Amino acid sequence: MSDPMVSQKLEQVPAILDEIGIDLWLLYARESHTVHDPCFDLVVGTNITWESAFLLTRKGDRIALVGSLDAANIRAHGHYPEVVGYGNGVRDDLRKIISRIDPRRIAINYSLDDPMADGLTHGMFLSLTRALEGTPYAARLESSEAIVAALRGRKSPAERARIAAACEVTVQIYERLTPRLRAGLTEKQVAAMILEETARFSGLELAWEPEQCPAVFTGPESAGAHAGPTDRRIEPGDLLNTDFGVRKDGYCSDLQRTWYILRPGEDRASEAVQRGFDTIVEAIERAADALRPGVRSGDVDSIARGHITAKGYPEYPHALGHQVGRVAHDGAGLLCPAWERYGKLHEKPVEQGQVYTLEPRLPVPGHGVATVEEIVAVDADGCTFLSKPQKKLWIVGEAADA
After folding, report:
1. Which of 201, 225, 200, 231 is nearest to 213 (CA)?
2. pLDDT tens for residues 163-176?
3. Is 154-401 in CATH node 3.90.230.10?
4. Can you point out the beta strands (E) in 141-213?
5. 4-152: CATH homologous superfamily?
6. How many whole angstroms separate alpha carbon 90 and alpha carbon 74?
7. Predicted TM-score (pTM) of this structure
């Protein structure tokens, strides 16, 4: 039952804790299937029912303190050599184990800036501090944000390969979709076609909630990002966008593509549409050229954002790119501007092993939005595209069939 990807992430933990100077990383949860801490997917690999603690130390200890009825499941998964099952309550055993470790710094899962490091509920925080009351350890709790950012962000070669495989099948789905597109279809019909093509592949899940996966937008009056497809019909002269991803072998893709719907008598997109699309491709290429270890994430965003505004378009109303992994929005680093909603994430340096989307957008008046979303992996001296980039505007209409 052991998940090799969980084993790989667990092997990364001691070095990360040592690098940051944390003695103990403590995951504390209950009913984790219903109230899920995202870190469980990384370093636990299953769920628990009763109040439970998973303790990981910089020395490499892995200790699971779980309810007695959860103990057999944790042992069967094989990730924690020491499994302690309790009956009456978690408090006494938790205090004994932490006293034995005697950590100076204890990281727990809360964060102001990173939702993937914010899995500890307020109720469980109160339970934990109550359990540690009267010990010196209650005053040694701090955020695990830096641990989670490093662990989620530094993808192993196997993780990178799985993301690339998810990207490859997503591109194939898009390529199968293109010949089926035409004016008159609704956004909902296009979404249904994408799901039909997805069903031709075995072992795929949607990368996010089905109400918005796929998202489909057409024309200048579309709902825009983070909305589901509607009954709006594709009209000649529209830009059509989709935002779609799959989860394959536990890892996600998240890719956007753009088509232009020819008007009667047209054999190519208008100059305004083509210029908008080309500007997006150029912005992605410039950001990719700048993306390397050590560069500030906000500086990468500024390069793409500055290229778009220099061409006379408004800046896009979101970050340039987020990390991708076990979930489409994988937390940790973000290629973003210095806006309040992003906290201090714009100051974070890019690290080798991170996998990001690059997804600028711009409006083309009278036609809709031009946008492309690619996925790149950060190497030692640059980045590599894990998705096959869309370099040309895809055309729908008679000229495309010729």
Report:
1. 225
2. 999 999 999 999 99
3. yes
4. 141-143, 204-206
5. Creatinase/prolidase N-terminal domain (3.40.350.10)
6. 16
7. 0.91
